[in-house]
Design brief:
The protein is of the alpha/beta class. The chain contains 6 helices and 8 strands, in the order E-H-E-H-E-H-H-E-H-E-H-E-E-E. The chain has a single domain, classed as fumarase (Alpha-Beta Barrel), CATH 3.20.130. Strand 7 and strand 8 form a beta hairpin.
Length: about 170
C-alpha cells in the first residue's frame, strides 16, 4: 500500500503504476454531474479564483456527500469524464471514481501528469475515514455541491497513469 498525502506532487505521480494500491490522506474535493461542469466553466473563464479553492495537487472524488457518507459514481458519465482534462490542466493530480475511461481521457491524464484511481463502492467504510466535510461552492446543489473533505487512509487502486489503463488488461 502506497500512502499518499494531499496535495500531491508530480514526483509522486511519476512513481505510480497501473494496479498500485494507494491510501490517500488529507483534503480532497468532491463533485459529480451537477457541479463539475460549473467548475470547468469557471476555469475556462479564468474565474476559479473567486471560489478561493486551490486545485494544484488536488484530488477530486466523483461522489455526492450525503448523511449516509460517500461512495463513487461512474466517472465515465459525460459531464464527469469531459471535466477530467480541464481539471487536470488546472492542477488536479488524482481523480477518484469508478469505471473505465476513454483512451482520449487517459491520454489527457498523461499529458497533464495526472492519474485516475478507482475506489470500491463501500460507503460505510469511507464514512469512517472522513474526518470533516464542508460545502465550498454551489450550496444550492445540496449533496451534489462542491465539498471539501478531510480524509484519512481512503483506499484506492490506480486505474490510469502514464497513458495506460487497468482496463486495457481485460
Amino acid at each position: 500500500m502506497i500512502k499518499i498525502q494531499t496535495p500531491i506532487t508530480n514526483s509522486i505521480i511519476e512513481k505510480l503504476t497501473v494496479g498500485d494500491m494507494i491510501s490517500i490522506s488529507g483534503f480532497i474535493y468532491t463533485g459529480r454531474d451537477a457541479v463539475l461542469p460549473k467548475i470547468v466553466t469557471l476555469i475556462e473563464n479564468n474565474q476559479i479564483q473567486a471560489l478561493e479553492i486551490n486545485l494544484k495537487g488536488a484530488v477530486i472524488f466523483h461522489t455526492a456527500v450525503s448523511p449516509a457518507g460517500v461512495g463513487p459514481t461512474s466517472s465515465n458519465k459525460f459531464d464527469i469524464e469531459s471535466s477530467i482534462p480541464t481539471l487536470s490542466k488546472a492542477g488536479v493530480k488524482l481523480h477518484l471514481g469508478k469505471g473505465a475511461l476513454k483512451p482520449e481521457t487517459i491520454a489527457e491524464l498523461k499529458k497533464h501528469n495526472s492519474v485516475f484511481a478507482v475506489i470500491p463502492p463501500v460507503t460505510a467504510l469511507l464514512k469512517d475515514k472522513t474526518i470533516s466535510k464542508k460545502v465550498v461552492a454551489f450550496p444550492e446543489l445540496g449533496m451534489e455541491a462542491l465539498h471539501l473533505l478531510e480524509i484519512k487512509d481512503f483506499p484506492a487502486i490506480i486505474a490510469a497513469v502514464n497513458g495506460k489503463s487497468i482496463y486495457d488488461e481485460l
